[in-house]
Amino acid sequence: MASRETPAEQIERLLRVSDAPGAIRAASALIASSPTSFLGRLGRCRALLMMGRVIEAERDLAAALAASPKDDHANLLRATLDNRYGRAEEGIARLRPMALGRGPQSVEAMTTLMDILFQTGKRDELRELVTAGGAWTKDARAAVHIARVQSFDDPLAAAESMRAVLRGSYPLQQRRLAGFEAAGLLDKAGQFRDAFDAAREAHALTGGDFDIEVFMRPIAEQAARIEKGENWIAPTAKRAREAGLAPVKGVAIMVALPRSGTTLLEQMLDRHPQISGIGEYDGLRAIADDLEANPGWPRRPETIPTKLLCDLQALYLEGADRIRRPGASWIFDKILRTWRSLPEIAAVLPGAVCINVHRDPRDMATSIFLSYFAPGTMGWTRSLSWTRRVIEMERRLIPRALDLLEIPHQQVIYEDLVEDPAKHAHRCLRLMGLEMDERVLKPEHNPRATVTLSALQVRKPINRSSIGRWKNYEWAFDSSWDKLVADHEAMRD
After folding, report:
1. DSSP readout, 171-211?
2. Rounded to two decimals, what is the model's pTM?
3. What is the pLDDT of residues 152-177, one digit of tens each?
C-alpha cells in the first residue's frame, strides 16, 4: 500500500506543477490545523508569489521567518522582496552568506545576489564572484552572468554571447533576458541597426501569443464611457464612504506608460524627507484582480460589496506601510498599470493623488521595443505599431479620466522636467501639500535601489541624454506617428 502524501509533500508537488491555487488550498488547510506551521506559511507564500500576490505573500513570509528565522529558503525570498522594494543592501547582506555557503539554496542565492549586484552597478563585486566560479556555473542562468561581466571589458563580444543564449536551448526567460541585454549593449555601442535586429529577434523567439484586440477592448470601453462624461464610479464611491470607506491620506500614484521617465521622477521625490518611494508596488494589481473577479466590475460597480472595497483598501495600505521609509508621511507608488486602473483608484483609494507623466512617444517606443518586458501582460511591446496604438489610447483616456473621476492630479512632461527640474518638482510637491526641498534636485545621491530598466541611468545627475534617442532609429518611424508627436509638443510648456 502506497504511503499517504504528507501536507508538506502535497504543497511541494502542487508548486512543482505550478498549481498555485491548489498549493494555497493545501497550505491554508495546514495552517488552519497548525497556525504557526513554518511549512504551511512558506508554502502559501511561494504560491502567492507565483500568482503575483505579493502583499499576502509578505504576511506569510513574516510568519515563516518568525517561526524559523535562519531558514535559507525563507531568507532567500525575503532578500528577493527586499531588493524589489528598494532595500538592496539588506537583500545583499542576507544573500551573501547563503551564496558562499553549501546549503540547499546556495546556487539560487548566488544567482539572485549576482542579479542584484548587476542591477545596482556593483561591478567589482560581481566580477569577483564570477571569476571565483563555483557550483552556480552549472546553472542555466550562469551564461548570462558570465556575459554581463564580459560586457565590462568587451561589450560587442558580450552582445554576441548574449545572442548565443537567445538562440540556444536555455529556459525561455533566460533567452529573452539575454536577447534584450544584447540589444542594449549594441545600442550603447552605436550599432543601432544591429540593436534593433537583436530586439526584433528576441521578440520573435520569446514573445509567445498576444492578442492586442483582447488587451485593448476593456480600455476602449472605459475610454468611450469617459468620453460620454459618465462618472459611473461616483455612486459606488459615495456609498462606500457612507458605509465607512475612509479617504486615504499620504498616497501618491504615478500614472504613465513604461519608459516615460517615471524612475527619474520617483528618485527625485523619494529624496524628499516626507516622501517614500515604494517602487512598482503590487497593491493596485491586487485591487484590480479582485475587482475583476466580480462579474459586475467595471460595468456595474454598484454590485461590488462595500466590505470588499474596504478590505482591498486596508490590504493596499497595510502592504504600503510595510515598505514605507520610517518618518515619511507620503508613499509614492509607480506601478505601471495605473493608467488603465483609474476607476479602481476612484472606488478603493479615494483621496489618493496622481501624477501623470508623458514623454515624446517616439523616445518611449524606441526604449520599449529595445527592453525586456513580460511577454504575457506586455506583449504589445513587440511591435512599434501596437505600441503606438497603446500610447494613443493612453493619451485619449487619461486626462479626461483624471478630471471626470475627480482624482487630484498634476501632469508632468518628461522633457520639461529635465529642462527645469525645480519647477516641476515643486508642482508635484504642491499637490501633496509639501514644501520644496533642494535634495529632490539630486536624484543621483539617492541610496535607494531601483529595480527597473533605468536603474543605472538614474545614478547620474539629471541630463538630456535620453531625449531624442529615437533619432538613432528614425527609419523605424513613419507618418503614422506625426499626430501623436504634434499633440505631445502641444502639451509642453
Report:
1. -HHHHHHHHHHHHHHHHHTT-HHHHHHHHHHHHHHH-----
2. 0.91
3. 999 999 999 999 999 999 999 999 99
